[in-house]
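Fill in residues.
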């Protein structure tokens, strides 16, 4: 495993078995308040960074990555050893991922753009008045550009 260059970002799971590198900065980030993310994370929402096409590389522990493929959503991958949520993959563009912000080693310095699925927000944790645009369902975000 090589060390990251200054333009690369790294991350991984809590047990350290799975490691990843981003070769380009994230394009942006967003909160998701859907029920699936609540159940997957055990919290009120998930915070994910959108990657540039082809910029995510698993550098260690690829054989430990387990992926759940829901019929109507993005496949979700996690470490099969410790259960850490790592990333999701675009169902129609497999070179595009969202990376869980909690799996970054350092601050990715990414701007958070919006909150989606707010109609499903957990009633026990009100969404803060942070000025981010809110969407009751999926945000009408543009598709990532082709590489």
């Amino acid at each position: 495993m090589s060390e990251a260059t200054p333009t690369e970002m790294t991350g991984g799971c809590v047990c350290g078995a799975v490691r990843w590198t981003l070769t380009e900065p994230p394009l942006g980030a967003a909160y998701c308040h859907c029920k699936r993310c609540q159940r997957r994370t055990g919290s009120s929402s998930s915070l994910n960074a959108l990657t540039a096409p082809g910029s995510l590389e698993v550098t260690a522990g690829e054989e430990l990555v387990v992926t759940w493929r829901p019929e109507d959503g993005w496949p979700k991958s996690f470490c099969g050893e410790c259960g850490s949520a790592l990333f999701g993959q675009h169902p129609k563009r497999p070179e595009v991922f969202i990376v869980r912000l909690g799996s970054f080693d350092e601050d990715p310095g990414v701007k958070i753009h919006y909150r989606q699925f707010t109609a499903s927000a957990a009633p026990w944790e009100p969404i803060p008045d942070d000025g981010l645009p809110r969407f009751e369902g999926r945000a009408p975000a543009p598709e990532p550009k082709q590489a």
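DSSP finds one helix and ten strands in the chain.
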